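Prompt: For my understanding, could you write out one protein's sequence and backbone structure tokens?
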Amino acid sequence: MTAPTRVLIVDDSASMRAVLNRILSSDPLIEVVGMAPEPHAAREMIKSLNPDVVTLDVEMPGMDGLSFLEKIMRLRPMPVIMCSTLTAKGAEITIEALRLGAVDCIAKPSGDPSQIERDGALFRKMVRDAARFEVRRAPEIRQPVAPALPGKQRDVLIAIGASTGGVEALFSLIGALPLDCPPVLVVQHMPASFTSGFAERLDRECQVSVVEAIAGTQIRRGTVYIAPGGANHMELTGGTTGHIRLRPSELVGGHRPSVDVLFRSVSALGASAVGAILTGMGSDGAEGLLAMRQAGARTFGQNQASCVVYGMPRAAFERGAVEKEVSLSAMPEAILGACRTQ
């Protein structure tokens, strides 16, 4: 019999600790081994209890979740799930936490712990999945430099899909895109409350313009469009100067927005598209990337050594959807090279 996933809950709210404990303990494959009201107590519990996963509150007195996460990832890397309020400050810190190495995040409504209880099935799956991650070290955060690539760019569109570990990967990749790059459409699995803040943070730190996608927008060069989380799938209509469509629909492969849905819509461009699939758990994007490659698009997958979770890229590679696997650091040059005229 599989041993249960051992979880430590860190949250300054006694009522929220009780809610999370109740949610997780209802799963026989999860064991809550401890609950800490603040990071100093949590540090001792991590040493003595050796949990598989830590759930970490973002905003706490004494030491905030972000500072504690930095210590965890430096001293004892392990899977951490951030539990955040829906405030702008909470979202900003959560995005930074994902960039620093937290494997996932879940929205925690301020003053309404019952909502996270209604989302209990998702939270339990998130914890079980997190236990499977091999977290090696804290990522090195650096400002990437756009590669200097000679040659004229083709009239193309770039489509990118990512999930677990994708926040860090996208900061690296998008940060290396030049001002005049082709339009870029991105699906990153992320709660709806965080995608707007994620786009704003990328926009502040990158050369290119980064926005949360709006239905009906005509895409343009030098702009990256992040699919909004939650209610819609993002698709492309028209050619490389076409428009964004946000389509309400059922989950596809357990996701909305789905990387597969985006890639399939982009496959209509044939050779006028470039696709890349980055770190993430599961197989979302594999079939869509295959459709792109079969239609004539250039396609790339992040290699195992540079992935936080080599799930989505592996699935795409095994289906024959990936033309070439490259490291995260080599991905900008590979994508931009594929956008050049031969």
Remarks:
- Confidence is low (pLDDT under 50) at residues 138-143.
- The first helix runs from residue 14 to 25.
- The chain has two domains: 5-130, 157-338.
